Amino acid sequence: MKFSPDLMTEILNGNKTVTRRPFKGKRPYTVGREYTATDQPRWKKTEFFRKAKIKMLAAREEALLEITEEDARKEGFQLKMDTRNREVSYFRSIMTAKEQFFLKWGAIYGVTDPMLVVTRYEFVLVKVLKA
Q1: Cβ–Cβ < 8 Å for 96, 30
Q2: Which domains does the chain have, with CATH numbers?
């Protein structure tokens, strides 16, 4: 199971325990089984990448818009405040976990259709593997 380097860090830190993937008619991951999570790119082999064993605990289909702030935190995103510009108003300087999730989703998949059906996988980190 491929993850971006920043999200792989969140898995290894124990902050990411949920992932969503576009639903394509069949679930490629089975509840109860273990899989290897990695941030190694598909398009090139690199010397530096990380791997971990994760176990699927639950899976369900839902519309992308159903993600909650709590679930966005389980996706590895946290409330962030921009402290660089103290002149910016409080409301404009905060980015919720849910907003961060949608930005990342768009960057990865190029689409943020809120009605897109996705599979929500919940997992647990079993162990960190040597790359």
Answers
A1: no
A2: 5-129 (3.10.400.10)
